[in-house]
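Chain X:
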Amino acid sequence: MLNRLEKKTPNQVDILVGQRIRIRRIWMEMAQQALGEAIGVTFQQVQKYEKGRNRIGAGRLQLIADTLGVPVSYFFGDAPKDGSASDESSGSGKNGVKSEVVEFLEFAATPHGLSLAFHPLSLRCHSMPRSASRSST
């Protein structure tokens, strides 16, 4: 049994589903508050769903999918088949290497990933001097 003082770590499938909810919500330019109102929860609950801290029931996941205009299967694209918390469910494949889809989703959920998705031409290579990044043709 879990000691009350021990922190329960989120299941990796819950994290994956949450990341996909976040990416789709942001892609649609929808606030957490708006999604929460549409599905009958607070924005704080939406935050917990997106971070994988709270599990989402089947009925609520269907509401989220309908609200975001995607099928429920969208949220499980690269999830492990058994839903376990094994190496596979952490997104790790053979030899502990993360799958490309999980790595992409982790990056896409970051501020840099979102910036790249919404403003791809405004990014610069910060390791190059400004004059070197311009074309000299």
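Chain Y:
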Amino acid sequence: MTFIPLDHRRVQTAVIGDKYSSDPVILPMDHHELDRWRKLHPDHTYWCGIQLGGCGGELSDRRYTDKVCHFAHHPNAVCHRTANGESSADHLFIKRGVERLLRRQGLRGKVSTRDLGTGPGDAVDLFVPATRRRVRFQLGALDYFAWRHTDDEFAEDADGVDWVFAQHGPLTHELLCRQGFSLRVRLATHGGERRVHIGVSAHGHPLHWTPLEECTLTPMGLLTPPLETIHLSRARPQPAGFPVQGGLIFAPVPGGQVTEEAPLEVGDRHLIVAYVKPVDSPVVRAHVSLPADSEVPPAGHVYRVPEGARVLVADGGSGWVVTAERYLCLNANEAQRTGLWSPSPVPAVTCERTPIPRAGHVGTAEGRSAKSQQPTAQAETAAVPEGPLSSANRRPENAERARDLISQLRPLEGALGEAAGKQVTRAINGAELWLAAVTNNHGGAANEGGRHVRQLELALRAARHNLKLDEHSTRSGTAGQAQWAAPANLPEPDAP
């Protein structure tokens, strides 16, 4: 006869009624609590349930005063159950709690436990046909590939899935990044019961636990009071994002603001189409997402995102968007060097070389007037381009005048001193950006024409003063390349 010792394992959980039961119980560990439990439930029988991974044998409750009370198998029982501790029946307690929640809300749904390879307590699934929603209580370990595979399977017959994890790890962080929050589950022992609590972890909010009976099953999924307070959008998952190293530049496409379907959800931010050039990369046409509290950058300019740019990619690679939080408008020189912008065409002006008057010689007033006005008259013969410029600019003569002044200042830049040269370059750059904005039909820019013309006139005056030119004569530049004649309608600079 083979002797089989008594079972000395501390089995904390069992099922009530028979071996196939899903009604769990945890034996009170204190002998006083066990005495009260026995009085309340004198007819209970306890079993090493099949749904606990047990042998199906009957168990007896053992009362101790010097150690923890627990269940024990009858003599000669053979059981290979591996999970015997306090949490070994948590999947059945969660199942019972969800079934009670369905009954309280008057909903029909299917609740089932899942064995994913390590035992029947790996997961609990809920499916509510009326709302086509699923809830997965993930109690066992799960890696990203297994999670993604299961999530794709759920998507075939459900409009949404709530994942509730028992353990905090990479997948809870993944969901926090994707949807702005993640759900957790934990159980606490109260007498012969394990009570279920649902936790919500969100950006900017501490982890908050709510009893399952205070939660609500809605068409949007499992809802807890903290979720209602946080006002998280459960229907707008955040796409994955990758930082752009070194910043980027972009030039909006005229009329490229996106008003129809976007490649992915960007919320209430501006979405435009632009030519984008990251550092050391070719130019690509892409969607650019910009903050809602900023104005839509007008076309005809080039902008630099110095830092913080990211590429957002829709799940499955169905679309992508470049997102930026701040950007700077480049000046004309910087914009032209990018290759994404060039100044508006300036009418060519033929500057006639005129002799420098001999000392003490003063020409006639008529001669001075004719010679000084010659370049201006030639510049004025260039017509203002038809189309957007003439319709957007409220004062077309400002554009004509600006082009004329730019054409006279350009040959002088290389011959000027540092201070005057900077003033001339700054005035030209500002005027060219203004001309580009007007050409692209940005009506607000048309009102700035007078200011840019005045800056060009002041720069011309400073250049003439720097080169010691007056309205009677012209000089060749330092480089000996261009000749310039001052317009007659500019005031004479003060004598040095």
